[in-house]
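Slide 14.
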Amino acid sequence: MNITEIREKLDKKEISIEELYEKTKEHAKKSQEKLNAFVTITEKCEHIESNSPLNGIPYSLKDNISTKGILTTGSSNILKNYVPIYDSTVYKKLKESGAVLIGKTVLDELAMGGSGVTGHTGIVKNPWDQSRIAGGSSAGSAVSVSEGIVPFSIGSDTGDSVRKPASYCGVVGFKPTYGRISRFGLFPFASSLDHIGIFAKNVQDVALVTDIVKGFDEHDMTTLPDEEIKYIDEIKKEMKGKTLFYIKEIIESASTEESKEVIKIFKEQITKLKDNGIKIEEVSFNKQLLESLYPTYFIISCAEATSNNSNLTGFIFGNREKGNTPKEVMINTRTNGFSEMIKRRFIIGSYILERENQEKLFLNAKRVRRIVVEKLNELFKKYDGLILPAGSIAPKINTNEEADRLGEDYLILENHLVMGNFGGYPSITMPMGYVKNMPVGINLTCAAKEDALCLNIASQIEKIIGIKDNKKGDEKDV
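Slide 15: predicted structure.
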């Protein structure tokens, strides 16, 4: 059920908050063996009574978001025993709203990855096909909503880590404007790109949750001033005269049979949107810049991750290995605490940040990001939003280390969502169809601070496309 349906049952006393919690917990535990969505499932219904629409509603939280007194591992061995001593702002706001935490969800280790296969507790599997990935890094959060365990979940998005798993798992995933939701208590990956995001069954539920968790926070200097509007009201307003654009070179980059099927569905949905009064135009974008998106993201994120995670030494908190000297303790802790992929990214980040490499690599990557953002900002002066496929279908599970390396065949179509992080734009993915009985998503990105507009247009798109509260079994082979 979605939030509205659960709210109605709670208000009518058809089920109590405690009964709902027990049923949800039972579902989470039952699905754990086959899907592995959770690091921790709570054992007690911790609930604060509230007048909020989320009062009594169960949800899950990505395991890189601090929860006082509850294990928070970042899905890494180096933090496998870490229990925070403070609450993140997003968790605190949800507690105060009366929402009930069911569990902490598995992610790619320290949020670095897009597959959901590198968490220290094992691989997260896609509910639609357990031989396929759920996407990452917010894999467990996406799965917990897709499987119908909870109606919403909180994740984080540094490159596409909410929006891509949403597409792979057939749910809605929203990353608001940079600073719209406080990141206080979120384990930092790449601070200039990190966002907290929301998974739900439909756009309305995403707007509802965003209203609860958004706002200025004195603990996070990057947060934006409070808006005097409610997104749940904004999405109900009639939309007229809106113009969207899509990028020709991204559509043309589809090279596999599956990705071409995705483009076919996208074009069919574009036609349907046009028939319903939404103006959509094709624009051209420098292909070299598009090909540089993933390498640019990789350079910036690895450099910032190396700096942000330098405190994981075994001395301050987290797991500590033995050693005869402080240096040995740190080396042994980091060697045994990180996976090969994480160690490789930290080595790359250290190389990028070396004085002789900063100009050529790190500063040049930031220049490319700036050029991309400037070009998008120019387009957003003319258009209300960018609409594109969120990518292809979820790939088969592959634990090969090569999966983390750069490749020519997936640089554009599978990685363009990072533009939303480069510019800090509000960006949302919704289901748009099926390929090989797997869901595929459509993504909408709008100008910075235009979150209300983004959710309003997304709500209209959702109605026109007609896929809402997506469930396994509703799929059709295209």
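Speaker note: The chain is about 40% helix and 15% strand.
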